[in-house]
Amino acid sequence: METTLQPELQGHFETAQARIAAATSAEELRAVDRDYLDKGGVVAGLLAAIPTLPPEQRRGAGQGANQLKTAVLGAIDVRKAELEADAIQAARSGKGFDPTLPGTPMRRGSLHPVTRVTRELEDIFSSMGYGILDGPEVEIDAFNFERLNIPSDHPARDMHDTFWCKVDGAERDSDMGLLLRTHTSCVQVRAMEKLKPPFRVVVPGRVFRQESVDASHEHTFHQMEGLVVGEGLTVGHLIGTMKTFLREVFQKEIEVRLRPGYFPFVEPGFELDARCPFCETVGAGCKVCKQTSWVELCPCGMVHPSVLKLSGIDPEKYTGFAFGLGLSRLVMLRYEIDDIRHLMGGDTRFLSQF
Ligand code: DAH
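^ thats the input. predicted complex w/ 3,4-dihydroxyphenylalanine below
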C-alpha cells in the first residue's frame, strides 16, 4: 500500500491492515469494516473532529480521513478476493469443502452428429445380427482396389481421386501402393480374410478423396459398408435387408426400387432408392426428394464371384451381397444440414447444436 497517508493516520491504517491480513473469514473482514468505516467508527470519528480543528487544518484532515477510508476499503477487498480464491482452491482439491460456494460451471459436450447417426445405425444392424467391423484408414492398394476387382488399369480407379502416401525411395507416390482408403469397401476384403462364412458385418468409417471441396463434396467423409456372405443369398435377401433397415430407421414400411449401377466388385450392381420418407409430412415441394418422391439410398449389389474367389471363398458354394451407405449424406438428410463442410469443419458453434 502506498503511504500517501498523513503520518498520524498511518498508525490507524497499520492497525487496520494487521487485522485485515489476519482475517480468515468474511465475517472478520466485516468487523474491520464496521470498526473503521461505519457510523461511530474510526473514520467517522476523524470526520467528526474536523470542526474542532483550526480552519487551516480542516481541509487536510478531511482529505486524510477519506484517504484512510479508501485505503481500508481497498485492503478489505484484496483480502476478500484472496479468501474466495483460497476457498475455491480448497473446494477443488476437496479440502475444506464449503457447500455454500457456487459450483464451478461445467460446459457439457455433445456427440458429433456423425457419431450419433453411426451409433443409431450400428444399433439397428446389431439387432439384425450384424457384427461391427473396423479397418485402418491407411490402406494398401490390394485391399482398396485389386482384391475388389479393380486392377491398376481399370477405368473405375479414375472415379476414386486417391490420396497416395509418400514413401521414401518410390518414384511415384502410387508405386508403394499405400493410400488413404477411398471407401469402406476395402474392409470387405479384410472381413473375408478374417471371417468364415456365413457372416454379416457393417463397417462405419472415414474415407478420403482428393475432391475439390464445395457444399456437397469433402475430401474426408463417412460411409457405412455392409457385407453379407452365406449360402443361397439372392437379390431378394438384399432387398429384404434394406427394407428391414428402413423400417427400423423410420418406424414405417418404406418402398424401395433398384436401378442398374456399375461397381466392379458387385454383379449385378444397383443403385437402391427409397420412397421419400419425408414427403408425407412435408407435402408437395419436398426438398429432400426434390419432388421426385424417391431418394437415393445406397449403391449395392451381389458380391462378384471373382471377389469371393480372390479372398479364398468358393463362389460355387457361397454368394453374398454388399451395400455402401453414404453416412455423411444420411447425417445431412437427417439433420437438414445443407453444407457437407460443416461436418468436418470443427466449428463448435455448429457442433453445440447437437
Ligand atoms: N464403395 C463404393 C463407393 O464408395 C460404394 C459401393 C457400391 C459399396 C456398391 C458397395 C457396393 O458395397 O455394393 O463408391
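The mean pLDDT is 90.
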